[in-house]
Amino acid sequence: METARSWVEGWAVAREVPEPVEVPWGLRIDVGHPAQRVRHVLLDADAEAARGLVGSIGEPTTCVKAFLPAADTDPWFSSAWEPTEACFLMAVDLRPARVRPPDGYAVTVEVSGGVTHARVLNTAGETAAYGRTGTAGDVCVFDQVVTEPAHRRRGLGTVVMGALTDAALARGVSTGALGATVPGRALYEALGWKVLSPLTGYVYRPAP
Hints:
By secondary structure, the protein is α+β, with helices and mostly antiparallel strands. It is built from 5 helices and 12 strands. It is globular and about 55 Å long.
């Protein structure tokens, strides 16, 4: 579960929220956003501990994540909880990417407060694709890799991943981790990433 722990810690860095706090069931992050005020990530919790945590939560938009399939976790949650999009914990040994953007695009990489931002810009200077990373120990966590709809199917997601990978290697970090959606998983697997586990999530009384 060390990669799972590093993913949680690096996610907090990338999202620029308070660092995770140790709790009996794993880690808690006070995210503080209207759509997700608190996030609990189960690491070593058994079913009894997980049910106890879920039963104690009364604050809307609290999120619970677990590295287990939905079939195992669904029974813990009442109808007041809404499942989040299915995800997977993935990891890779980072290798130099040397990816170049297609004609008409340029890449920028900036570091601010421990977060690395990579952007692919079009000739008008508009963001066509974007991603960020946060580092936890010797693991670089990739997060929020997005390509704008008008610029998809041009390999820009691969360009963003390559720029972030090369930036991580330049800092001496050689392991990558991320939480992938079902569509994102295909891109990352094509780049050599491996699935370590399912990553299920639930939100208590989500915001409208």
